[in-house]
């Protein structure tokens, strides 16, 4: 079946269609968990996040210090690469989790880490708090979700460039300049309340001053070393967060309101889980976003009888995703469906077909491909 044309703009016809079809801010499926268990899972603690944050920043300091000491020798390269992954990828998950306000019990700790991580990832902390709220409210709903990575057809070259931070980071810096001039982009206005606009602008102006200072130091020293510490790691360290982030939703259904259909859980090695802060448990996170990262493995055990089997590794997940993306690239309207265990409640078609009506055929096409 030929692919139905999609308009991913938040201002286009698909955005209006999503509202008309009841997909905007819809009632999503959730696995039933006893209230007391859920309350216990949502309990916040400072200790795990303080431990992980101290490890993260200590490692960043050590890697950067060794990189500086060995500069400009090529012997410094492994240390810069390690520093870059922590700056340009681990900060992505810290931005994400602290934006939810769940890692720390103490609210100011969440905000401190969120502000630092937002700066590293070049994501205005005000803008992206509202953007990510929309992502959770309307996950992979075309025209509503501003954070869809693998569109249909997938822009594979854009995704490839983002492994080096080339588009996302430069768009972030471009937004920074626009916001610092006192303006917001047109799409930003659709999800950021008017009362928050001045905060967006204020943050952007502070960031411009910081970057200007770093660039001035680099010019005075006639060295890119200051930029190796602030700025450039967003480019050379982005690959890990892109590698793991693509697997969150790529190749799965869009315009559905069951996270078991549009999100993916992947088992990962301990190092990647630390960098990713357990966001590999992505079905669980979307279904219950207020559960802290350090309880997601436990949540996974509680709901796995009601969810598709997790992919056993990053490599296996890509072996599953890649053929679908290639077929979508050829404008075939295909996506993966995940088999549910016998103990699971079935996918509720009334949450999808009924809400979409005749215009929603794209969501439940017969070209759905079972995951192997």
From TrEMBL:
Keywords of this entry: Membrane, Transmembrane, Transmembrane helix
Start-end of Polar residues biased regions: 361-372
Coiled coil: none
Pfam families (UniProt xref): FA_desaturase (PF00487)
Annotated region (Disordered), positions in chain: 346-372
Limits of the Fatty acid desaturase domain: 72-314
GO cellular component terms, A-Z: membrane
Bilayer-spanning residue ranges: 53-74, 155-173, 206-232
A molecular-function term among this protein's GO annotations: oxidoreductase activity, acting on paired donors, with oxidation of a pair of donors resulting in the reduction of molecular oxygen to two molecules of water
Any single GO BP term: lipid biosynthetic process
PANTHER family to which the protein is assigned, alphabetical: DELTA(5) FATTY ACID DESATURASE C-RELATED (PTHR19353:SF19), FATTY ACID DESATURASE 2 (PTHR19353)
Name of the protein: Putative hydrocarbon oxygenase protein
Organism name: Yoonia vestfoldensis SKA53
Lineage of producing organism: Bacteria, Pseudomonadati, Pseudomonadota, Alphaproteobacteria, Rhodobacterales
């Amino acid at each position: 079946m030929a692919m139905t044309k999609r308009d991913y703009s938040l201002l286009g016809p698909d955005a209006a269609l999503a509202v008309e079809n009841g997909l905007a801010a819809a009632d999503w499926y959730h696995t039933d968990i006893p209230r007391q268990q859920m309350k216990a899972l949502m309990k916040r603690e400072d200790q795990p996040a303080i431990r992980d944050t101290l490890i993260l920043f200590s490692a960043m300091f050590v890697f950067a210090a060794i990189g500086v000491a060995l500069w400009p020798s090529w012997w410094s390269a492994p240390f810069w690469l390690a520093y870059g992954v922590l700056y340009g990828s681990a900060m992505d998950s810290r931005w994400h989790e602290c934006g939810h306000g769940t890692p720390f019990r103490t609210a100011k700790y969440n905000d401190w880490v969120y502000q630092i991580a937002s700066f590293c990832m070049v994501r205005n902390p005000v803008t992206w708090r509202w953007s990510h709220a929309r992502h959770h409210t309307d996950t992979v709903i075309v025209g509503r979700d501003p954070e869809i990575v693998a569109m249909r057809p997938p822009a594979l070259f854009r995704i490839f460039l983002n492994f080096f931070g080339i588009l996302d980071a430069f768009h972030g810096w471009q937004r920074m300049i626009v916001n610092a001039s006192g303006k917001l982009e047109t799409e930003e206005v659709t999800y950021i309340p008017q009362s928050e606009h001045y905060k967006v602008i204020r943050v952007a102006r502070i960031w411009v001053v910081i970057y200007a200072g770093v660039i001035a130091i680099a010019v005075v020293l006639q060295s890119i070393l200051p930029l190796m510490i602030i700025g450039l790691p967003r480019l050379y360290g982005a690959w890990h967060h892109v590698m793991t982030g693509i697997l969150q939703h790529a190749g799965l259904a869009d315009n559905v309101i069951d996270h078991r259909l549009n999100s993916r859980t992947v088992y990962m090695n301990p190092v990647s889980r630390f960098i990713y802060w357990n966001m590999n448990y992505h079905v669980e996170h979307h279904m219950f976003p207020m559960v802290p990262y350090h309880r997601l493995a436990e949540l996974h055990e509680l709901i796995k009888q009601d969810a598709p089997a997790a992919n056993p590794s990053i490599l296996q997940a890509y072996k599953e995703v890649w053929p679908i993306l290639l077929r979508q690239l050829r404008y075939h309207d295909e996506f993966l469906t995940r088999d549910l265990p016998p103990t699971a409640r079935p996918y509720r078609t009334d949450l999808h077909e009924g809400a979409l009506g005749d215009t929603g055929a794209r969501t439940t096409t017969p070209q759905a491909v079972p995951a192997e």
